[in-house]
Write the structure tokens for this entry.
Amino acid sequence: MTARAILHVDMDAFYAAVEQRDRPELLGLPVIVGADPKGGRGRGVVATCSYEARRFGVHSALPISQAFRLCPQGVYLPPDMEKYARVSSEVMEVMREFTDLVEPISIDEAFLDVTGSRRALGEPQRIARDLKDRVRAVTSLTASVGLASSKLVAKIASDMRKPDGLVVVPRGTEAAFLAPLPVRRLWGVGPKTEESLARLGIATIGDLAALDPEKLARPLGTHGHDLVRLARGLDERAVVSEADDAKSMGHEHTFAVDTANSDVLRRTLLALCDAVAGRLRGHRVRGRTVTLKYRDETFRTLTRARTLPEATDAGDLLFAAAWALFQDVHGERRVRLLGVSASGLGDGDQLGMFAAETRPADRLRDTVRARFGDGALVRASVLEGAKGDDPAERRGTRRLLR
Ligand code: DCP
Ligand code: MG
């Protein structure tokens, strides 16, 4: 099997670079995007800033008031999301000139699998350089690119020599490349996991790679196994283009008021998982990959995915994965939106096993919903503490679920 050639492309100081491009008088100046459009400098957080501003210690998510203290001479601009979205589509379009396998993961970054483009377009390193040149020619902006045999390594590589970087990690050197880096750089290691690992004396990816995965079974469960594999540079996750991604089912919820209440967050996530599971069962399919979408009060949006050992249509199993993903991305900030989707969909009814394998509680939910509508039956744990719910109904719900 030929090694895969995966690119991770990430635009440099994206919003700020767009502003500098459109107003050349700002080139070379510290530009901070995220100011309150009403002109007040005391409110809001920094979305991003130019590399000139980073030298003053300004960075994404810093309160504008603090940025102003660090860098009073900076140029403070309100974000123009419509413009950035437009430029983002141009960038993604350029990427599709190189392969159909483009997986955007945020407004300014994407994975590309160019393994199959070699014959037409040349060696992957050449493709990476040509891609950077095309992005610059079309948008007048610079991108940093990582090239490696996996998503994990490509993503870390693109970040190593920003701005305008190109870092190639040759096959066979992945583990050595990762070893000196802090575990935090691994996908799926958030503050919680980092803490558990620190308690075991694990600071670098190399420490983790050298570990017997069984040692992580207790603190981290099956997630521990995955982490050790990742630390050794083993990551088989495929680049999933948007066309493939359409084969997914998901639900999301925007909170009326941003919230940090962990009960509310947990219950919402559970309800979303139940809704997705219900849809899967309705379509007689099961999902193998669970993706969490998470947006915080600063509009920072993250997606994280986990692949299950086997495809499922059970709300509980989706929730177990979604909750673990959530705990890894959730920090101090209030949450604005949560979403859950299932992908990697397969036929759940092959061999007529669907009916037999659907869990009794889920089957009951489907039956009641089919008869009385979507709101008829909600898990007790979703209802509990919900405003204005009727305690009698709540007890009834609980009984039904048992
Ligand atoms: N963004 C945001 N809030 C954050 C982080 C990022 O609104 N807390 C927005 C602004 C960024 C864009 O998303 O321009 C892309 O995020 P990146 O993390 O890729 O940051 P940049 O592209 O700005 O800089 P870098 O050169 O480090 O990639
Ligand atoms: Mg970027």
Summary: The two ends are 50 Å apart (CA to CA). The first helix runs from residue 14 to 22.
